[in-house]
Amino acid sequence: MKTILMSAVAAVVLTAPAWAQADLDANGDGMVTLDEVQAVNADITAEGFSAMDTDADGVLSPEEVSAAQDAGQLPAATE
Ligand SMILES: [Ca+2]
Ligand SMILES: [Ca+2]
Question: Which CATH code fits 18-79?
């Protein structure tokens, strides 16, 4: 169990460098949906989400999350 957990953590670190959106990505699929954003900050509207979703694919990539955090549109990582 511990080995599996460590492997999962290592995989996340290797595939998603320089973004700490664990608080946002509730299901751990590497992308952040509107539902996941609103679970953290219910004040974020669909319009606000669209503004952060710069490539308009309906989910926030690590880069989009980082940009939104830099712009103050999302809460910064807590770790
Ligand atoms: Ca997700
Ligand atoms: Ca996107």
Answer: 1.10.238.10
9: number of Cβ within 10 Å: 11
* CA 71 / ligand 1 centre spacing (Å): 21
49 alpha carbon – ligand 1 mean position (Å): 14
pLDDT tier at 76, thresholds 50, 70, 90: confident
The CA 75 to ligand 2 mean position distance, Å, reads 18
Global pTM value: 0.69
Query: In whole angstroms, how far apart are CA 9 and each of 20, 44, 65, 78?
Result: 12, 28, 19, 17
Whole-number pLDDT of residue 57 = 98
Average pLDDT in the chain: 81
Locate the domains of the chain by residue range: 18-79
